[in-house]
Amino acid sequence: MSVTQPYYGPDEPPETIMLERTFVVGGYIAGAGYGIQIVLYVICAMYLWSQRVRRGKAMLFLLGYITLLLCFETLFIAVSARTVQDAYVDYRNYPGGPWAWFLATQYLPEDVLFYASLFVLTFLSDLLVLWRCWVIWLPAGRIKASLVLVLPLFMLFGSFALGVLWTVESSKPGLSLYSSLPLVLGTSYYVVSLTINILVTIMITIRLILYRRKILDALPSEHAKHYVSLATIIIESAALYTVFAIIFIATYAANHPVNQIFLSVASTSQEVAGYLIILRVAKGQAWDSNTLNNTTTLPAIEYAVHERRKRSKDPIGLSTRSMFLDTELALSSGPTRGSESLTLPVKPSEGSPASEQRDVV
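Below the sequence we write its predicted structure tokens.
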């Protein structure tokens, strides 16, 4: 005799239940992404603070930028958690279930803050990739760099206007993120923002590929990989966010329940991409206006010293002393990539002091 298991689930359509599931999953993903961002923030802040004296106000500016980014991300996570608590705990008996409550209460302060913080985070991240594109193209000349950024910059102003309208319309009583007008505005906003990222990604990638051969010719592979590797291109161009944003826009425009998951993934990946860019800047590994000049000096000398040591029976003795002395003049004109000073002992020769050191900066 079979026993029928009673149904204890909600009396809701399967589509609504799926939306409620993805809503919870999106909250968990956002929380996990927030933890990753805190770790990256601490690492970036330590590097930026340690470089504030040697590299000036730029490091403090970037420190302020990531602090602002973390503040808005904290606000976004806090209001998201409060919304989930209200929908699934405090008002779980609302007619129609948690999703119906969520759609009917978009005017609440936590929901308004949700949209506003998401909009600000996206806008700040777009500004960062535009700045990186400017820095990477600047060595080609200000005119070329300006021409490259004209279209993305105008699109940024357009996305700002759409983002403000989307935030206002989505938080009006009786409307929601999935109402007809907010849906159109939201889709348009993210399409414009994504187009900015795609254009910037393409322009940064083109720039890196154009100089890939020059760097490979000038540097040994272990040094060149810092500037022309696939990972470098992905990080510098913020391509990580672009991939997930495309998936989110496709699912959001189609009104598929899984868009809730990719909204959290896209938002998290956008902030993580920004932190990775700033981490490379803080460590002195990111592209700047002097990259080509720097990559043809110290790394090549370091590599030559390394190769000569391997071939010599006296790796750091008389055979290399003259080369170290010669390179001091080449390096005395200013700092190069990296912040460490490499101190190399020189083996004493006849008539010289018992011990001597040369610093290669």
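Residues 14-288 form a domain with the Rhopdopsin 7-helix transmembrane proteins fold (CATH 1.20.1070).
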